[in-house]
C-alpha cells in the first residue's frame, strides 16, 4: 500500500470504529496494518502516519478527521494526541 492508501485506510477505519464508539491502541492499529503487509514497526513511526492521516482528512472530510482524533489511543488508553 502507498502512504496515501494507508492514510485513507487509517481514516476509513477510524470512522467505522468511531461510529460504534470503539477505541483501539496504536499497537492494535499496527497489528491490523501488519496483516495488510503495511506495518510501521514502532508506535512512534505509526504515530507519525496517524498524524499525517489526520492532517490529510482535515481538508477532505471533517467527520473522519474528528474520528481519527478520538479513535486511536496510547497504551494507557489516553488519546494518542493528548500528551
Q: What is this entry, summarized?
A:
The protein is mainly alpha-helical and 83 residues long. Helix content is 66%, strand content 5%.
Provide a descriptive summary of the structure in words:
The chain has 83 residues and is mainly alpha-helical. The chain has one domain. Helix content is 66%, strand content 5%. The chain has a two-stranded parallel sheet. The termini are far apart. 23% of the residues are buried.
Question: What brief labels describe this structure?
Answer:
single chain; 83 residues; mainly alpha; 66% helix; globular
Strand order of the largest sheet: 1-2
Shape: globular
Overall number of strands: 2
Share of helical residues: 55-70%
Strand content: under 5%
Distance between the termini: 30 Å
Low-confidence stretches: none
Alpha-beta classification: mainly alpha
Instruction: Please give the radius of gyration in angstroms.
Output: 11 Å
As an assembly, this protein is single chain
Number of helices: 4
The average pLDDT score comes to 90
> How do the helices and strands follow one another from N- to C-terminus?
HEHHHE
Total discrete domains? 1
List the helices and strands and how they pair.
Layout: H1 3-19, E1 24-25, H2 26-35, H3 43-60, H4 62-71, E2 72-73
Parallel strand pairs: 1-2
Amino acid at each position: 500500500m502507498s502512504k496515501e492508501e494507508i492514510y485513507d485506510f487509517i481514516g476509513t477505519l477510524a470512522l467505522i470504529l468511531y461510529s460504534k464508539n470503539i477505541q483501539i491502541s496504536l499497537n492494535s492499529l499496527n497489528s491490523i496494518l501488519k496483516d495488510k503487509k503495511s506495518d510501521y514497526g514502532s508506535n512512534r513511526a505509526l504515530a507519525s502516519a496517524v498524524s499525517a492521516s489526520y492532517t490529510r482528512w482535515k481538508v477532505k472530510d471533517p467527520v473522519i478527521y474528528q474520528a481519527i482524533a478520538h479513535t486511536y489511543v496510547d497504551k494507557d488508553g489516553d488519546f494518542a494526541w493528548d500528551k
